[in-house]
Amino acid sequence: LAGLVAGACSMGMGEWLSVNSSRELSRRQIDIEAAELEQSPQMEKEELVLIYQAKGLDERAARTLADKLFQSRDAALDTLAREELGVDPEGLGGSAWAAAAASFCLFSAGAIFPVAPFFVTSGPAAVIASLALSGLALGSIGAATSLFTGRSLLFSAGRALMIGYGAAAITFGVGKLLGAAVS
């Protein structure tokens, strides 16, 4: 249970930090783009013309579109952020808190499978039940991913089992080395 709570907290905090850092990076890039737009609007317009030409517009159409967008500073900045930086200024990667909560909950939901048998039994029976229940959960999750990836059901289930059991073996080995194995 301590590992479940610690892991869920770690995943939640890590996800919050990741999303928040990504948002801050995107915001900084947009701020730099805004400064460049303020200092050299013509150069930024030329960059946009080149981007649109690279996407298949002829030079005249690209210039017409860039001229139209540059009539409004906000439209120009929004378009430069999207086209040059690949950043959606409105979204900036979603909510760090929602991502943290989702990560915490999903980790907890997955981590309950190996822990649950220890609520009702102990010793070797609990270990075997934990491995079986975990294997069932891992295989099911792997099989479900095949619906999205197009990989075969057996491949996806097998991969999830191998990785999950591999992680469990490493965790057990480290615990054994540190003298904290379940007896």
Can you walk through the features of this model?
There is one protein chain. The chain has 183 residues and is an all-alpha fold. Helices cover 83% and strands 0% of the residues. The chain contains eight helices and no strands. Helix 1 (2-39) packs across helix 4. It is elongated, with a radius of gyration of 25 Å. The model has no long low-confidence stretch (mean pLDDT 91).
Secondary-structure topology with pairs:
Elements: H1 2-39, H2 41-54, H3 59-69, H4 73-85, H5 96-115, H6 117-120, H7 123-149, H8 153-177
Helix pairs in contact: 1-2, 1-4, 1-5, 2-3, 2-4, 5-7, 7-8
Can you describe this structure in just a few lines?
By secondary structure, the protein is mostly helical. The chain has helices at residues 2-39, 41-54, 59-69, 73-85, 96-115, 117-120, 123-149, 153-177. It is elongated and about 75 Å long.
Summary tags:
single chain, 183 residues, mainly alpha, 8 helices
The major sheet is characterized as: none
Q: Give the uncertain stretches in residue-range form.
A: none
| Rg value | 25 Å
The share of residues in helices is over 70%
